[in-house]
Specification:
The complex is a heterodimer of chains A (199) and B (468). Chain A is α/β, with parallel strands linked by helices. Helices cover 32% and strands 15% of the residues of chain A. Chain A has one domain (6-166): Aconitase, domain 4 (Alpha-Beta Barrel). In chain A, a hairpin with a 5-residue loop joins β6 (142-144) and β7 (150-152). Chain A starts with 5 loop residues before the first strand and ends in a 9-residue tail after the last helix. In chain A, 43% of the residues are buried. Chain B has 468 residues and is α/β, with parallel strands linked by helices. Chain B folds into two domains: 8-277, 2-Layer Sandwich (Aconitase, domain 3); 291-463, Aconitase, domain 3. Chain B is built from 15 helices and 19 strands. Chain B has helices at 8-14, 40-49, 79-94, 110-116, 148-157, 182-193, 208-211, 215-223, 239-245, 255-264, 315-328, 354-364, 380-388, 391-398, 447-456; strands at residues 17-20, 25-29, 32-35, 59-62, 98-100, 125-128, 142-145, 159-163, 166-173, 201-206, 232-234, 277-282, 289-291, 299-301, 343-346, 373-375, 401-402, 423-426, 441-444. Chain B is globular, with a radius of gyration of 22 Å. Classes of the chains: A alpha/beta (199), B alpha/beta (468). At the A-B interface, α3, α6 and α7 of A face β2, α3, α5, β8 and α10 of B. The complex binds iron/sulfur cluster. Residues 64-65, 109, 111, 130, 132, 348-349, 407, 410-411, 429 of chain B line the site of iron/sulfur cluster (SF4). Chain A: Belongs to the LeuD family. LeuD type 1 subfamily.
Amino acid sequence: MDPFVTLTAPAVPLDIANIDTDQLLPARFLKKPRSAGYGNFLFHDERKPGFPLDDPAYGRARILVTDRNFGCGSSREGAVYALVDGGFRCVVAPSFGDIFAANAAKNGLLTVTLPEEVVTGLRRQLQEMPGATVTVDLPAQTLIGPDGQALSFAIDPFRKECLVEGLDDVALTLRHQDAIDAFDRTDAKRRPWVVPATD
Amino acid sequence: MTQQPRSLFEKVWDAHVVATRPDGQALLAIDRHFLHEGSFHAFGMIDHAGRKVRRPELTFAVADHYVPSHSRSKPIADPEIANMVTMLEANAGRHGLRHFGLHDPAQGIVHVLAPEQGLTLPGLTIVCGDSHTSTHGAFGALAFGIGATEVSHVLATQTLWQRRPKTMRITVDEMLGPHVTAKDLILAVIAAIGADGAAGHVIEYAGSAIRALSMEGRLTICNMSIEAGARAGMIAPDDTTFSWIEGRPFAPKGDPFDRAVEQWRTLPSDDGAAFDREMTLDAADIAPVVTWGTSPETAVPVTATVPDPAAEADPVRAGQMRKMLDYMGLAPGMALEEVAIDRVFIGSCTNARLEDLRAAAEVLRGRRAVVPGLVVPGSAPVRRQAEAEGLERVFIDSGLEWGEPGCSMCVGINGDLVQAGERCASTTNRNFPGRQGPNARTHLMSPAMAAAAAVTGRLTDVRKLGAA
Ligand code: SF4
């Protein structure tokens, strides 16, 4: 996974709440291998005239600024592949679906959560200045909007570390192999029924 | 030694922490891992890294999302769909996993099959690459959906890194009225708190209305926790839970069962356990509901009218309401009971268990459906039992189709689609744009309400239907 450190890029505003992963990646594309080019499926059924992602005024946007509960719904990681393969590295919203946010971090896509009125303000600025850039500095946890104002955001330290380092967590987990083995041994005595009877 | 009172969630969480990091992330041991056809990305990741499945005996593969609802004796016509079903079998076979394939007598939707087979037990940690894994919390398990990279992590390590979520208790007292079901209850909860109202939280459902529910009803409640944004939903195990589990194929038997029950009885939240948030609801206030928009949070009593965006003070929200009404083809102020529907779907991991089919059949018995509809049982055992009870005859006699178990028209990826522009009365969990097919319009409701809509051809208050 590509590490995420800083990014300055055009941002595109999307005034829609509760964008779910079915909209990000319609279910019929779920059977496609990643090599099929998930970027082509991003928002596939939403791409009608006037859809901001297709508006050339926003340039080659790499940052999406949207409304609350982005990425709710199905756990499909393909929704994240579609955004990443479509060129996005960062999504800014007042809130995210939990599973989506976890999937995003595992694929180098940064999710920035900011208060609703702040995000609405960012979308207004972008609508007034289409093509304006936004800068995200993950180590410093700041986002600089088109008006030049620096906004700081919170992020889970583990998620931040994985993003900045581009870490694969299986390797990290295997450092705890002894603890996992010890847990399994004790648990087998404590809760012997956990391993199911075979049918 | 006096211990801090702990909640059900805290007890299950604490019992599974293998290691903690200084930043508060915990490495959780996972007791059950369910896979479906969509797990091919995750198998690709572990195969690519040359890793094996650490605990194959705790890992189960289930064909449900892509399986056909009809003509199972014939090969699947669409090669891409057929490939999804055979790829799961091949991946499960290569890694030595128990696979519930298309022709397995236990086959069904993973969230119906696992409880039914006795794989879902109280106090377990359960994950699956599917957001409705929250369903299994009905047994007092901590169960949640994960993405493909996490699936590959669980396959390789049987653990998962998690930040401890916050807790929320929703207490529902009093009794649900006649024809008001668990589906109406959970939709009312989601409407009250919003589609992201429980984000970052694990919900515990408590109170006399919850205690009074069957396991089927509890599964429906926990299933839709994710539609309120919750990480998971949980209900304390009790005698209803234990008697459901006893004797199921994979459940502990004899002395191990008795010892398990003894431990499971210690799981319910202690008196005085603290929750980050609390909410109470009176079950008697809940009416049969339907959704009018493209989010489950748009659930309203069926007796209501379509809301008017002009009455919404926030211009952004008003704009979003207009967009939903436009997609749904509805005008503000219309009585919902006047909205004509084109088809009915009774099925999904939310509402395709025996109790659901009985409730729908009770409404349909002796009546005719005036629109086409499909009834898809949640599992092969549900299907057999429904046939033994004559429910399938009721559906067929009323004019509805009777399908083979699977996800079917809930997500449409086996080819069972609602056509563009069609309006479907559906017992599923999501009414998102395009969920049941491109430009399909979905109204969520209970099985009895969907059956009532089939009979009248419009959204209908099942309480007004009277006897056939
Ligand atoms: S029935 Fe629907 S919600 Fe349930 S697992 Fe299948 S596709 Fe998902």
